[in-house]
Design goal:
By secondary structure, the protein is an all-alpha fold. It has 22 helices and two strands. It has one domain. It is 59% helix and 1% strand. Helix 6 packs across helix 8. The model is unreliable at 1-13, 29-34, 472-491 and 493-501 (pLDDT under 50).
């Protein structure tokens, strides 16, 4: 056994350098001088990992803005097909006029003209849109195009802040793996889809919530999840896997604190609008129920291939049933796995199940999964494979819309090609899901647990003993059913078991 002096001399750095664990990261590092050496110092000096990741996130976001230049200059305003052929479409400038912000209408209170009676977004997103309209300091006498451009630019600046918060929160969630945040900052789909819609607000709040949970601040986690749910519906799904994990670890008080915080925060945001403008408030929920099968879903492939429409009520019921079945399977996996899964793993699986079974998949929905993927499966090869599939879908939907709006010219991607793009999106997401399920069943294959960690993003769950489990686990593994005492670090062997140092 080495002496204390030897241990202090050869102690590994607290930060895990990705170039020592990931062959793709090592190969990519050749662009900046090669992998980190034995005596490299991490987390010191002005360029700490978090600062580097924040700067990279800003740079990639700016590249995404550059990609929208053809639309910003003219394509948003000169016909419909040009914004699709240049793959630079955004809802933001169109909804500035279409949802009454250009006319000074108040969301949820003032009725809109046309088919959409009220704003069809959750309350916190509506507030975000309203603040952006207040900051659009162009006179009403200016041309409409110029005002829409400024509105998009203001929103882009606000969404850039959300992107930086997102990347920084992911970098800080795993204390020993800050460089995993680089997966988020460099994600091609983040740059391409960040300014299509306002999803980054909810995504950033969700990432901040997971950071709070990893630090044991359970009430703050709940409050942020409640705020995120007030901006987009999907963040509430994270309370499901957390329930199963807290059940298995016996952390009922912590879970209750999180749920109460989430409910209180959601109510604080929604209750005033619910009471003062109930018709406008419920528009988001009625619109979600009444919406027909739309782009990106496997339901669309079915209707296009069969030529038979599916009633919206039937799709709603089938989607809910499929989601329930998948969530039950995820819960069963979490309760029967020999070693308790990590929170980020189950969070990714649940949100992916929602995306896969939903009747619509807008291209910006990929933002929901990017931070969860970086925390659940931080391997560059697998992450980039999935991102490649999402980029192909991003191009596929715009070229398909160009085909359908170009008249007799038929410029773009025909229906069969778009179905291939949808299939690529589905396959890429299922690929990551399969790898994460394998990591749960074989913790020795989990990149995060290869250094002996249990659940760095799990907060009170990290290293906690099991109180309820359907299968007996190895007595030396993290999350085992033994008394909660401080033990040695564990290393995962090739057989998928934990052996003490």
């Amino acid at each position: 056994m080495p002496s204390a002096e030897d241990t202090s001399v050869h102690q590994e750095p607290s930060v895990v350098p990705p170039t020592r664990q990931d062959e793709i990261a090592a190969a990519g590092s050749e662009l900046i001088g090669g992998p980190a050496g034995r005596w490299a110092r991490f987390g010191t000096g002005p360029l700490t990992p978090v600062r580097v990741i924040a700067l990279v996130a800003i740079g990639m976001f700016a590249l995404g803005m550059v990609q929208k230049i053809p639309c910003y200059d003219w394509a948003w305003f000169r016909g419909t097909s040009s914004q699709y052929t240049h793959a630079c479409y955004s809802d933001i400038p169109h909804l500035y006029v279409g949802r009454g912000f250009a006319d000074g209408l108040v969301p949820y209170v003032d009725r809109l003209t046309g088919d959409m009676a009220y704003l069809e977004y959750p309350v916190l997103t509506g507030l975000f849109m309203q603040i952006a309209s207040w900051l659009t300091l162009t006179p009403s006498s200016d041309p409409a195009q110029q005002r829409e451009q400024m509105y998009w630019m203001v929103n882009a600046g606000m969404l850039m802040i959300c992107a930086v918060i997102l990347a920084v929160c992911v970098a800080r969630t795993h204390r020993r793996r800050p460089w995993d945040g680089l997966l988020v900052a460099l994600a091609p789909a983040l740059a391409l889809t960040a300014t299509i819609n306002w999803d980054l607000l909810a995504v950033a709040l969700t990432a901040a919530a997971m950071l709070m949970w990893s630090r044991g601040r359970n009430l703050a986690f709940g409050i942020l999840i409640g705020l995120a749910t007030a901006a987009k519906l999907y963040p509430v799904l994270l309370l499901g896997p957390l329930l199963v994990l807290c059940w298995r670890a016996g952390k009922w008080r912590e879970y209750g604190s999180a749920v109460l915080g989430a409910a209180a925060a959601w109510l604080v945001v929604n209750l005033p609008v619910m009471l003062y403008a109930p018709e406008g408030w419920k528009k988001f929920y009625t619109f979600s129920q009444e919406r027909q099968i739309d782009y990106g879903s496997f339901w669309l492939i079915i209707t296009q291939r069969t030529g038979r429409p599916i009633d919206v009520s039937t799709v709603n019921t089938a989607s809910v049933l499929l989601m329930v079945v998948l969530c039950a399977g995820i819960a069963g996996l979490a309760l029967t796995a020999r070693h308790r899964p990590r929170f980020a793993q189950l969070a990714f699986l649940v949100v992916a199940a929602f995306i896969l079974t939903n009747k619509v998949y807008s291209p910006q929905y990929v933002l929901w999964l990017i931070p969860l993927a970086a925390l659940a499966r931080p391997r560059w090869r697998d992450f980039l494979v999935w991102q490649a599939c999402e980029v192909m879908y991003f191009l596929g939907i715009w070229f398909y819309l160009a085909y359908t709006t170009s008249g007799d010219k038929h410029q773009g991607l025909p229906q069969e090609g778009y179905q291939v793009a949808i299939a690529l999106h589905l396959a890429g997401t299922l690929y990551l899901c399969a790898l994460i399920v394998r990591d749960i069943l074989r913790p020795d294959r989990d990149p995060v647990r290869q250094d002996g960690s249990d659940d760095p993003s799990g907060g009170v769950l990290d290293g906690a003993p099991d109180r309820t489990a359907l299968l007996q686990v190895h007595p030396h593994a993290p999350g085992h059913a033994a008394p909660a005492v401080e033990g040695p670090r564990v290393e995962w062997g090739t057989a998928g078991r934990a052996a003490s140092d």
